[in-house]
Design a protein that fits this description.
Elements: H1 9-12, E1 21-24, H2 35-44, E2 49-55, H3 69-73, E3 77-84, H4 95-101, E4 106-109, H5 112-124, E5 128-131, E6 145-148, E7 151-157, E8 161-172, E9 177-178, H6 187-192, E10 194-205, E11 224-227, H7 240-246
Parallel strand pairs: 1-2, 1-8, 2-3, 3-4, 8-10, 10-11
Antiparallel strand pairs: 5-7, 6-7, 8-9
């Protein structure tokens, strides 16, 4: 039996190299984001990264937290592939937004569904697919277009990565993962699409202790697991007790 538990977040990211492509599982808030892995990557200081995610961090939808924005602040990113890379507030531009507009970081915007499907395709070994999403917009620039069943469609290629940093609720020592809430968004598909997948989890149990019906990501896709030892102290409006009291 291979025990995939590692002792620290620094150890988990030790082999990330300059120029690596890294997926970050997230949607828009802190619940599904691997905060501690991201911090360890910042501390490691590798450069010229390509990062893939639904957002590029610091977009301002919820409370501030350490997401991909800290990598831009540390000048570690050369390219970002995302659906929502900029802040929702023009008066509060994200670090990514500032660097893209200054010509310091390359940006590839991908519609959210297409982003998910490109990642999924990489996980399933599918080289490319056709989709009507983006036809007639700036998204189609430079892409092959075909008419299929009477509809114009764009050719989109699979999107693999060197590493996937993901967030889950529970794991066993073999790497089988259970998710909660927004963790179920991009984390499961990203786990399948990278050469090395590293999971940040709240709880680790022995093999066999998780109901097989509850497992979303089989351990065959996961290379390393790290347990969160200190929960984030988020503002009150994100705490469960607040929702219970006001329901």
């Amino acid at each position: 039996m291979v025990n995939k538990v590692v002792g620290s977040f620094e150890e988990a990211v030790a082999d990330v190299f300059d120029g690596a492509t890294i997926m970050f599982g997230n949607f828009a808030g802190p619940g599904g984001f691997p905060i501690n892995l991201c911090r360890a990557l910042r501390h490691k200081g590798v450069k010229n990264l390509t990062i893939i995610g639904n957002t590029a961090g610091g977009i301002g939808l919820t409370t501030d937290f350490d997401d991909q924005a800290i990598l831009f602040e540390n000048r570690q990113v050369k390219k970002v592939i995302a659906s929502f890379p900029f802040s929702i507030s023009p008066s509060r531009p994200s670090p990514c937004e500032k660097q893209v507009l200054a010509g310091e970081v390359e940006l590839e915007i991908v519609p959210q569904g297409t982003l998910a499907e490109r990642i999924r395709a990489a996980g399933y070994g599918i080289g490319a697919f056709y989709t009507p999403t983006g036809v007639g917009t700036v998204v189609e620039k430079g892409k092959e277009k075909r008419v299929i069943n009477g509809r114009e469609m764009l050719l989109e290629y699979a999107l693999p990565a060197d590493f996937a940093f993901i967030r889950a609720f529970k794991a066993d020592k073999l790497g089988n993962l259970v998710y909660r809430g927004t963790q179920r968004n991009f984390n499961p598909i990203m786990a399948t699409a990278a050469r090395i997948t590293i999971a940040e989890v709240d709880e680790i149990v022995e093999a066999g202790e998780i109901d097989p019906e509850a497992i979303v990501t089989p351990g065959i896709f996961v290379n390393r697991i790290v347990k969160v030892t200190k929960q984030e102290d988020f503002p009150r409006h994100l705490e469960r007790s607040f929702w219970v009291k006001t329901a």
